[in-house]
Write a structure and sequence with these properties.
Keywords: FAD, Flavoprotein
Number of helices: 6
Protein name: FAD-dependent oxidoreductase
Cofactor: FAD
Distance between the termini: 53 Å
InterPro entries: FAD-bd_OxRdtase, FAD/NAD-bd_sf, FAD/NAD-binding_dom
Strand order of the largest sheet: 3-2-1-7
GO molecular function: oxidoreductase activity
CATH architecture of the largest domain: 3-Layer(bba) Sandwich
CATH class of the largest domain: Alpha Beta
Number of domains: 3
Low-confidence stretches: 140-149, 221-231
CATH superfamily of the largest domain: FAD/NAD(P)-binding domain
Length: about 240
Amino acid sequence: MRYVIVGAGPAGISAARPLRQLDKDGDIILVLEDNQVHSRCMHHKYLSGERDAEGISFISSDFFEQNSITWYPGKTMVRLDCKESRILLDDGTFLPYDRLLLASGAYYLLPPVPGLKEAGNVYGFRDLSGALAIDKAVKPGAGDVCGLSGIWPNAMKQGVIAAKNMYGIPTPYEDTYALKNTMNFFGLPALCIGDINCLDNRALVITEEDSKNYRKALGGGRRIKKHTDGGKYLRQRHLPVSD
């Protein structure tokens, strides 16, 4: 079996490691955009001078050798050929696969402001190459904007699940609590868990709002399981309570 993984972030690496444990003899190929594996969450540590480029890596220096993984550093996938079961890299190399995992992560988007993309002092803060460019252009330091969502642990869990599915063990990703979004608006924390859009007219929607809080909850049907307060909260709002 030949496995190709595009992306060397927490999901890609977390998939490669158990994949080798499951399949001792299969070929594992990993494609990464930068020239080394690194934690994007640690870019600010690099810019502050607390760590060097090697210090923001989250794998051992012999990770690929230990796990018998062929890796293509500094390469980008530019085409997916599903019919021929292969991908094309930006240097013209074709990589055939039996199982393919796309774990390249998200990418930043520059706003459609005239002249912004053509400016010579606008940088993305996603890859190590972007951090290196910012470090070269800005002295003595720089700041960063970070989300509060647990992206890293989510990606690691999803990578392990992906490895099992690639090997042929059907495994669903059931950690729905991890599929949450958190943001901070001027000091006001916001948390979203699950689906907040009512697409089924049979669902029960509860909303509450005051000067300090906004709450919204969706029920899976017309009845909600009784709360520990004996259903008092729901009855006060004339909502159905089940036994």
